[in-house]
Amino acid sequence: MSPSTVERFRFPTVTAWLRTGHQNQLVSSSLGTIMLRGCAMGLSFVVSLLLARILGVTQYGAYAFALGIVNFLAILAVLGLNRLIVRDVAVYRSQGRWELIAGLIRWSSMVVAVFSTTLVVIGCALAAFVGASSDSFLWTVITALLLLPVTALTSIRSATLRGLSYVTASQFYEYIVNRGGIVLLLLLCPFIFPGGLESGPAMALRVLASWFTLIAITVFTKRKLPQQLHHCQRRYEVQAWVASGWSILMLNLFYLFNGPVDLVILGFLADPRDVAVYDIAFRTSALIALIPTCITTCIAPELAKLHGLQQTEKIQQVVTFSARAIFVSSAVGAIILSLGSPWFFNLYGPDFSESQTVFFILTGGTLINVFMGPVNAIMVVTRREKVAAYIVGISGLVNVGLNFLLVPFFGAMGAAM
Description:
The protein has 19 helices and no strands. It has helices at about 5-10, 10-20, 20-75, 80-95, 100-130, 135-145, 145-165, 165-185, 190, 200-225, 240-255, 260-270, 270-285, 290-310, 310-345, 355-370, 375-380, 385-410, 410-415. The radius of gyration is 22 Å and the shape is globular.
């Protein structure tokens, strides 16, 4: 078979793209991100395993419910500016518009800091006014709310690094440093809390690790900012940023309605045991999307740059290559996790045995989602976030409705459906 025939068989557009310099940066970033995300997933597994063993199913359920509420609010706290920064910083950088990069970084940091702090005050007041099933859970929720400004600002710093092409470094601080800090503090629990650990103090350890992560990533970001940013007059395009940020925020919130909101609804309509069972199953099924998420994270700045330069053919080549890689990696991951699930869930103890059934249900939905390719990222970087928000919003509302319908009858399995 001649070389030209082989190239036709292996998809000529992808082969041509792989001969350019673009694949070197994408492949190296993807591999680095996959390794870091893999380590982060491993650390997250250790965190959940330690917490499940230390807290027990009921206390772990309270911890997971409080964290689920905060994770939901964190998307609101960042106002969609994290994905806006990745897109616009990459575009401005390719165009040499340093004054807009400086303005966007300063403006987004101030807005997110003020808004997230406001959410903390409102959330604490509501939690104290409404009350909770116990004082222990009330303090767990209040402590968890302190994560909001830290998580939001860390997301802004990470997005800035990704927009400047420091993708691997952003993942290292946001995931490895944070998870590693939590693991270290949990291992020190017998010395810090000799009388045992409950959900409130466990959440306080997470807050402490998150603050350390924010400080570390802030110092690194300031060191890596291009020199041009230190010698230019900041310029602000607030109206354009607000319009795009609002659309991206709606898209992010609607995306939450298709998954993470299940945990919050489950916490209100079921008991902590169901929350704990669902949380472990949800975290495990998320492993299937590890490589797809890494690939999408890495191609977003590249797609934004190519779109800014109006290189449509190269965008198609990147998307085609990425979609096929996502399809294969997801299928392999689902098979491996399904085969090893009996052993995997036994590690958490007999109280979490129901997580395996929930995991199989969630796996089916995850596969359908990732097999569609990085549609969400493509629509955002090509400035079609409003269309994406409408589509994701409709499916999110359907998911929320089904949760309210099924959770009272089927518990954790109803949330997974």
